[in-house]
Amino acid sequence: MPHHPGRYPTTRLRRTRQHDWLRRMVAETALAPADLIWPLFVHEHEASHPVASMPGVERLSIDGIVKAAAEAATLGIPAIALFPVLDARHKTDDGRLALDADNLLCRAVRAVRKETGDAVGIICDVALDPYTTHGHDGLLRDGRILNDETVDVLRRQAVVLAEAGCHVVAPSDMMDGRVGAIRAALDAAGRHDVCILSYAAKYASAFYGPFRDALGSHAALATAAALGVADKKTYQMDPANTDEALREVALDLAEGADMVMVKPAGTALDVIWRVKQAFGVPTLAYQVSGEYAMIQAAAVNGWLDGRKAAVESVLVMKRAGADCILTYFAPEIARTLRP
User: Fold this and answer.
1) In terms of DSSP bridges, do strands 139-141 and 121-126 run parallel, antiparallel, or are they unpaired?
2) Are 135 and 143 in contact (CB under 8 A)?
3) Which residues are catalytic?
4) Looking at the DSSP assignment, which residues form a beta bridge with residue 259?
5) Comparing 217 with 94, which gets the higher pLDDT?
C-alpha cells in the first residue's frame, strides 16, 4: 500500500515529538535489559585488573565472575559471555589447554552454574586465540591457518565447554564447516540442548584492538607475524563485503546454528538488517571493544555524554534488526533503563 505522508500545515510531524510521554508512546524501537549480553574477562588472579584500553572494564577472578553473573540476573540481563585471560606460560602453539576440562574457563563456568543455575545464560567462545602463542583462532603451520585440523580441535573444545555447564557455545573462529562438526560432536556427546551461536559474519576489523590487549593475544600476534600470518584476513571477512555475509549465515544455519552473530555491530548495521530480513532467525550483534573504547574515551575527555551515547549506540543496533547485543555497557545501560 502506498504511503501518503500528507502536507504541511495539516500534517505536522513535530506534534508527536513535543512531550516525553508521547515520544515514548510512538517509539518504533524499545531497548530493554533483556536485549543485552554482558561480556566478561576471567583471569587466574584473585584481584581484579583494569584493562587500560577499555576504561571501566576489568579482568575478574572466578569469584568476581560469579558476583557479576548474580548482578546480571538482578539487572535483568539474560546472559553473560565469558572470555579467558591466560598467562603466557599456559599458551602453546597448538592451544592444547582449550581441551582441558579443568582449564580456567571451565572452572569459571562450573562456579557460575553452581551459584546461579539456569538463572543466567553462559555463553563461551569456541576458538583458540586465548590459548595459542601466536594469537590466532586456529592452528598455524607453514605460514597458513589450517582449516580442517582446526575444526577437529574446535569440536572437541565445544564438548569440553558443554560438559562444564556452558549453555551456548559460540564458534568465533570463522573456519569453514565448524558449525556442522560442533553440532555433530555435541549431539554425539548427548548435549542436544546446548545451543550454537555462530559468529557467522565476523569481519577482520581494526576495532578489536582493546579486546586483544585484554586477552594478551595482541602481543602474541607479533609472534604470528614472524611465522608468516600477521593478521586474520584469511579467515575473518573483508569489511567491504555484505553478500558474502549472507552466504556465511546461510551455510551456518544449514549446519545447525541456532543463532547467528554479526561483529562488529556499529560498522555493520546494514549487514544486521540484511541478515534479519533474509533469514528471520535470532540475530545477535557484538558492540566490540574498540567501539566501547571510543565512546568511553570521548566521555572521559568531556566530548560527549557517555551514558547517553552508550544507550543510543546500542538502540540503533536493535533498530537495525539485532535481537540481542553483546556490549561492555550492558550493566550501565540496564541500570539506566530500570524504572
Assistant:
1) unpaired
2) no
3) 202, 263
4) 197
5) 94
Beta strands in the chain (DSSP E): 36-43, 49-50, 58-60, 79-85, 121-126, 139-141, 144-146, 168-171, 195-202, 259-263, 283-286, 324-326
All 3 cell numbers of residue 18? 513535543
Cell of 218: 595482541
Q: What is the pLDDT of residues 184-212, one digit of tens each?
A: 999 999 999 999 999 999 999 999 999 98
DSSP 41: E
The three three-digit cell numbers of residue 143, written as one number: 605460514
Q: Does an H or E element contain 38, and which?
A: strand 36-43
Helix ranges (H only) for 124-242 are: 147-164, 178-188, 209-215, 217-226
- Residues constituting the chain: 339
For 188, phi then psi, to 5°, come to -65, -30
CATH class of 30-337: alpha beta
Q: For the chain, report the end-to-end CA distance as a whole number of angstroms.
A: 38
For CA atoms 246, 252, 258, 264, the dihedral sign is: negative
Residues contacting residue 277 through CB under 8 Å, at least 6 positions apart: 321
Task: Please check the confidence at residue 1 and state whether its pLDDT lies above 60.
Answer: no
How many CB atoms neighbour CB 269 within 10 A? Answer: 17
Quick one: cell of 280?
A: 528471520
Specify which residues 60 forms β-bridges with. 42
Determine the Cα–Cα distance for residues 313 and 306; give it in Å rounded to an integer.
10
In angstroms, the CA 180 to CA 159 distance is 13
CA–CA separation, 230 and 143 (whole Å): 9
